[in-house]
Amino acid sequence: MQNKKVLLTRIFPESGIKSLKEAGFDVTAWDKDRPMKQDDLIDQAKKHDVLFCTLTDQIDKEFLKECSHLDIISQFAVGYDNIDVAEATRLGIPVGFTPDDLTDATADTAFGLLLAASRKMFYLHKSIIEGKWEYFRPNANLGIELKNQTLGIFGLGRIGIEMAKRCKGAYNMKILYHTRKPKPEAEKELGAKYVDFETLLNQSDVISVHCSLNDSTRGVFNKAAFDKMKPNAIFVNTSRGQVHNETDLTEALNSGKIWGAGLDVTNPEPMQPDNPLLSMENVAVLPHIGSATVEARNKMAKTTATNIIEFYKNKKMPYVVNPEVL
Ligand code: GLV
């Protein structure tokens, strides 16, 4: 695509850059492994037609006011809460995303965190490093089992469905879910049952969060929610840290309101090393690596590029958040 300039805001997998170059785009890639400062992001974006960005870039009203000339914003992520989509839509800028590429990788992360929390794995791994493995202890380091337990999925989209399949297949777990609209196809496939939020909280042994972050999900897992959960419950979040209130979660774990937690996302990110959650036995935390597999990240980079290429070729994008502007 002659003369079209694409700004890549981070160091992304080569698969995306290669596709863009082969299609004739003029590609500039930010070469530091950290987010651009907002002023640099705006300055650079002003010189480009397309933004190839990700969840650490703040594409807010202010940015869009300065960069309303952009033809397209193509996001390397399934979540796009860092982008003011309403404003982009008002300005006629299509926003692309990568929903199909990281489903398995993220469901694996949720499943791994569940297992890790249920058997205190991260905590016990750390205890070996600290020289505390002395002898076999019959009545210590006890976790809890997941077989035949009830899984509550909050947000039954692609990733939630894959997490449910893993839990059903491995542990014959009964599946409850709460989401915007009941999903009869998933009910058939998983034997899942739609329940209201209250029922999800008080009947699930495990709650796994897979919703997107928006005004209706921000902070919903707060003190009132944790108070309604079972004392043996494990809370897993691989979506966005802002869906839970971290102070309330810490308090719920400390007071035994719930049993454990597995978090791939925190609030804020990065989590600081002295965060009390990191020293709790029944808590497993990862640094937002849900989609971090070679396979998923390569596919995401390719889709991010394909969204751009198809936009210029046919005014179509395979994965677009605001199709009304096309
Ligand atoms: C990761 O968090 C994503 O939204 O892709």
Describe this structure as you would to a colleague.
Helices cover 37% and strands 14% of the residues. It has helices at residues 14-22, 38-46, 61-66, 85-90, 103-118, 121-129, 158-171, 184-190, 197-203, 223-228, 246-254, 294-314, and strands at residues 5-8, 26-29, 50-53, 72-75, 95-96, 150-154, 174-178, 193-194, 206-209, 234-237, 260-263, 283-285. Helix 4 (85-90) links the parallel strand 4 and strand 5. The longest helix has 21 residues, at 294-314. The protein is globular, with a radius of gyration of 21 Å. The two termini are 19 Å apart. The mean pLDDT is 97. The structure holds glyoxylic acid. Glyoxylic acid is lined by residues 55, 77-79, 102, 290-291.
Brief sketch in words of this structure:
With 326 residues, the protein is of the alpha/beta class. It has helices at 14-22, 38-46, 61-66, 85-90, 103-118, 121-129, 158-171, 184-190, 197-203, 223-228, 246-254, 294-314; strands spanning 5-8, 26-29, 50-53, 72-75, 95-96, 150-154, 174-178, 193-194, 206-209, 234-237, 260-263, 283-285. Helix 1 (14-22) packs parallel to helix 12 (294-314).
